[in-house]
């Protein structure tokens, strides 16, 4: 059950299986975006705390440590145990997520349940990471070993806090790495609660460390640390570039980046307009539009354009905005005042540049960071709202004439995270799926993210893949071993 008064037990840094104050003694507030009021004061980690966390993670990774000597199947069992503890505390985690992030409680519950499944997927994968035997020339026996890279730094965003934690912890732990994670400063509560559950599950000291703090300080210390061998980041392109540069100039640590998007969803003339409008509605307004794959560029064929806009507007107007713990709420607040003002600024620019505001566009209520679901029609490709990632509840509906034209326009972006098409023509579906430059393509659906399927972007939407077996690659080294065999008699 939802609990808007959920107790906040964990507010300190988690290092070596202990909750500790920041070395500096500093704290920072985490804010409830529904009210704009403080939820709790959180220990503010910086370089000194990251150094301690890395030291603990490095000790946990030495060749003779409990973690390194543990069977891969036993690592999988620990991941499964963690998932069962999450299942036990599903309502606590979901309530904390809604308090800290603002998403409607049913959505938080969905995210936590999905994260449980993510951990169970990687629990099953932990003992299935193997190498190859190689038919070598000469009197040699050659094989490969897949070995964990070592201490990894992980920096996660605020839009899906617990999901992003599971996407990062799952493959890293299945591979046998140790972790130093920085949650987003806006949403540290579920990460700290998960740290407590990891200790209860039985993960050895130092395997998992959580250092809340700010990007330039705690995040910067992770991306430049000489003893961290891989950094995984989900967030903006701007910050991703900073992290990649820091990784290069420090110790050439491995980097995986899941960055922004400006995803196209193409509605073909043969589509069922009601179904297409609903898919597009879910694809853009999910999580208040704070979704990296949000279908914010909705390309609609000219023959059905006006009817589609009418259907889309009706759905947006009916969307219930309000307290995430209230019955029937599906749309909560934006994450904070900065994002709130940024989104309203984009809405203002859209109107100034000539887009037609069909519905929405205004703040909701007098407290918190609520914005009406907003739809623009008559949007052209050169408009700011069609080019830049808004990360808010703003849908741009764009008219097109032919599929070839739609593909070219869909690809005319520096992003390439996701794309979708709604059609009853299999030839159109395949043509689009093969031609569009995006890491995930959805046909007659959207947001169909699966634990078993790789997720990541083309172009400036990132490097590497999350989820599926592919996600393990960034956490593993490949070692070739060649042994000379005795000469034949």
From TrEMBL:
InterPro entries named in the record: Ald_DH/histidinol_DH (IPR016161), Ald_DH_C (IPR016163), Ald_DH_CS_CYS (IPR016160), Ald_DH_CS_GLU (IPR029510), Ald_DH_N (IPR016162), Aldehyde_DH_dom (IPR015590)
Active site, UniProt feature: 258
Species name: Anopheles sinensis
Top-level taxon: Eukaryota
Keywords: Oxidoreductase
Protein name listed in UniProt: AGAP009944-PA-like protein
Membership in a protein family: Belongs to the aldehyde dehydrogenase family.
Organism phylogeny: Eukaryota, Metazoa, Ecdysozoa, Arthropoda, Hexapoda
GO molecular function, one term: oxidoreductase activity, acting on the aldehyde or oxo group of donors, NAD or NADP as acceptor
Domain Aldehyde dehydrogenase per the UniProt entry, residue ranges: 20-481
One Pfam family named in its UniProt record: Aldedh
Transmembrane portions of the chain: none
């Amino acid at each position: 059950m939802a609990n808007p008064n959920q107790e906040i037990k964990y507010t300190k840094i988690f290092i070596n299986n202990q909750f500790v104050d920041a070395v500096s003694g500093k704290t920072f507030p985490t804010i409830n975006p529904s009210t704009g009021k403080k939820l709790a004061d959180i220990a503010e980690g910086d370089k000194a705390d990251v150094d301690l966390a890395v030291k603990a993670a490095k000790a946990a990774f030495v060749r003779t440590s409990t973690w390194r000597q543990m069977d891969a199947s036993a690592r999988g069992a620990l991941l499964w145990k963690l998932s069962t503890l999450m299942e036990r505390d599903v309502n606590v985690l979901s309530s904390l997520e809604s308090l800290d992030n603002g998403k409607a409680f049913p959505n938080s519950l969905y995210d936590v349940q999905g994260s449980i499944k993510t951990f169970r997927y990687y629990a099953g994968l932990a003992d299935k990471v193997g190498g190859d035997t190689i038919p070598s020339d000469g009197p040699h026996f050659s094989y490969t070993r897949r070995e964990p890279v070592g201490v990894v730094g992980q920096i996660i965003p605020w839009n899906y806090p617990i999901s992003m934690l599971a996407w990062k912890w799952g493959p890293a732990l299945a591979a046998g790495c140790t972790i130093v994670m920085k949650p987003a400063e806006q949403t540290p509560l579920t990460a700290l609660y998960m740290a407590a559950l990891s200790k209860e599950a039985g993960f050895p000291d130092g395997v998992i460390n959580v250092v809340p703090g700010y990007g330039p300080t705690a995040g910067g210390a992770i991306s430049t640390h000489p003893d961290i061998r891989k950094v995984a980041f989900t967030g903006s392109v701007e910050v991703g570039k900073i992290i990649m540069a820091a990784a290069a100039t420090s110790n050439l640590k491995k980097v995986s980046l899941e960055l922004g998007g400006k995803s196209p969803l193409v509605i073909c003339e043969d589509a069922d307009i009601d179904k297409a409008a609903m898919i597009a509605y879910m694809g853009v307004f999910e999580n208040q539009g704070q979704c990296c794959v949000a279908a914010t560029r909705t390309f609609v064929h000219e023959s059905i354009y006006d009817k589609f806009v009418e259907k889309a507007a009706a759905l947006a107007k009916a969307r219930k905005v309000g307290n995430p713990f209230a019955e029937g709420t599906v749309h909560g607040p934006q994450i904070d005042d900065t994002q709130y003002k940024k989104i309203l600024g984009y809405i203002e620019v859209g109107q100034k540049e000539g887009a037609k505001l069909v519905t929405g566009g205004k703040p909701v209520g007098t407290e918190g960071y609520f914005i009406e679901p907003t739809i623009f029609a008559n949007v052209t490709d050169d408009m700011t709202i069609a080019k830049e990632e808004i990360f808010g509840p703003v849908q741009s509906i764009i008219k097109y004439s032919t599929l070839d034209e739609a593909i070219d326009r869909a690809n005319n972006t520096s992003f390439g995270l996701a794309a979708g098409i709604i059609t009853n023509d299999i030839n159109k579906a395949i043509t689009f799926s093969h031609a569009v430059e995006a890491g995930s393509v959805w046909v007659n659906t959207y947001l169909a993210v699966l634990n078993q399927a790789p997720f990541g972007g083309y172009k400036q939407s990132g490097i590497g893949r999350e989820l599926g077996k592919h996600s393990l690659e960034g956490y593993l080294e490949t070692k070739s071993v060649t042994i000379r065999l005795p000469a034949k008699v």
